Amino acid sequence: MDKVKYPVLTEKTIRLLERNQYCFDVDLKASKTEIKQWIQDFFKVKVVAMNSHRPPKKKKRIGPVLGYPVRYKRMIITLESNYSIPLFLNK
User: Fold this and answer.
1) CA distance 37 to 20
2) Whole-angstrom Cα distance, residue 27 to residue 84?
3) Is 90 domain-assigned?
4) Disulfide connectivity?
5) Where residue 77 sits, what CATH number does that domain have?
6) Do the domain assignments include residue 88?
7) With bands split at pLDDT 50, 70 and 90, how would you rate the model's confidence at 75?
8) Across-strand partners of 4?
9) Is 87 domain-assigned?
């Protein structure tokens, strides 16, 4: 799916893994229901809750041109306790 860009792995999101929460960057136009349906179908998991936020806009300079990088929405997805996403498993 084009709307889910990639999983996010930072110090905070690694701490969220202990609470069975996973973080993804998604397209701004994607709705929670679309993302929830895609996550459940693709990973065969049960989603309990979803939280989303848009990180603040930041300026970026490339030579004399000042612009903004591509915007995205960050989704924090909580799964039922007996499910997990294999992308994030330690081996």
Assistant:
1) 18
2) 23
3) no
4) none
5) 3.30.70.330
6) no
7) very high
8) 26
9) no
Q: Is residue 52 part of a domain?
A: yes
Boundaries of domain holding 33: 4-82
pLDDT tier, 2 (very low <50, low <70, confident <90, very high otherwise): confident
- Distance, in Å, from the CA atom of 39 to the CA atom of 87, rounded to the nearest integer, reads 12
Token pair 């499910």: residue: 83
Please give the model's pTM, rounded to 2 decimal places.
Answer: 0.83
DSSP the chain: --SEEEE---HHHHHHHTTTEEEEEE-TT--HHHHHHHHHHHH---EEEEEEE-PPP--EEETTEEE-PPP-EEEEEEE-TT---GGG---
- Our count of domains for the chain comes to 1
The predicted structure's pLDDT at residue 25? 94
